[in-house]
Known about the structure:
The chain is of the alpha/beta class. It has a single domain, classed as HUPs (Rossmann fold), CATH 3.40.50.620. The chain contains 4 helices and 5 strands. The protein has a 5-stranded parallel beta sheet, sandwiched between helices. Helix 3 (89-99) packs parallel to helix 4. The chain is globular. It starts with a strand and ends with a strand. The model has no long low-confidence stretch (mean pLDDT 91).
Amino acid sequence: MFKRILFAHDATPAAERALPYLEHLARIEEGTVLVLHVYEAAEQYNTMQGYDAMLASLEALAREVVDDSVSYLQAAGVSAEGVVRAGAPANVILHTALEEKVALIVLGTRGPSNVKDLLLGDVSTEVLRYARCPVLLVP
């Protein structure tokens, strides 16, 4: 059913908590995982000295996050590949999901602090609202 899964990894503890669930689901479904990390550059600083170095640093850190997750999944026997993109996270996640024809999007969330107060971030909320495929949120 979920042969192509997009895992949006934002380098937070919530995303790290989602990895074992993703790994289990991908193994059961015999699916391929696309690990995506989106970084957002502060465009208002693009004329300042050091901006290009900052972008290179963001890209390198993003690549490290993706490579670590891909290695973890592959060591667990899951077919996985990674991609790093720049832009507004929710927009890039939604665009990548369409472009890659994924069957499921997996996101880590901050999770509920109590029954009445479900704490979803702006990205999670937007992805849930506009995704054209199922979305799995892992608290």
